[in-house]
Structure prediction request, 305 residues.
Amino acid sequence: MNPSTNLDFLDQGVIARLSRLILNVRNPMLGSVTGLHRSATRGASVEFAEYRKYAPGDDIKFLDWRVFARTDKFFIREFEADTNLRCYLVVDTSGSMKYTSQPDGGTRFDYARKLAGTLAHLLVHQGDAVGLTCFAEKVMDLPPRHTPSHLRQLCQTLADAKPSGESNIVQTLHDFAERIRSRALVIVVSDLFCEVPELLDAIKHLRFYKHDVALFHLLDRQEMDFDFTRPVRFVDMESGADLITDPAIVREAYREALDDYLTTLRHGCQQFHVDYHFTYLDQTFEGVLTQFMLQRLRASKKGGR
Prediction:
């Protein structure tokens, strides 16, 4: 059976408009080739980093003669090196990603696929390497590359993916942190249906290895409003368990629990300096990505975290 070639989740007009912006990182990276992003190492660049004392063998072209004139000592000017970026798109493909409250609307996974596919194009366009991890009960990985053929393979993988099974986001992120030690941008796209303390522990693990982490938290507006008007049979799209209840009876408790969940998640992301984006499925993905890229561009100019 031939693989699907349906890539209609990609909007070339949106990609062209967003390509005028730079998807930047907030922390120095450790890339393999010259690129757009600040490096954690020193090198040749226009961005001054710091002074250090001259040592025999240092290139004298980096001596600061003005400092020598004031102090009668030799100091070397060091500069920020510019490097390329490795980005890992971590996309939830569990059963709950099939949800939508609109019969003719796109599912949560449709939205996630648009975000991930567009970001992949933008990253490769600016010379960065992008990889893909799709996770549910099993995990599928594509290592980061920056070639057009790799980009086609990545987008085809998104096109062929079918949400099913139970989410395993916590273990996936822990495994990722142990497996990928070099600094990278990790973008997670998910409904984040898991226990918040466990999720924050996995995020802390990623941040320990100095990964720049961004979360796109996808929710349908009806999941927030909970505006059901008659008894409903709710079915867990991952486990298959069901519950029949009157929404009017549980609405207040549901909203309180959801508010506590979101408050704890936001505070945890703020504590660990994670870029958190709460996203409704009826928001335009172009607007969401534009805001995401502009915020990161401003943060990088301020020096990041």
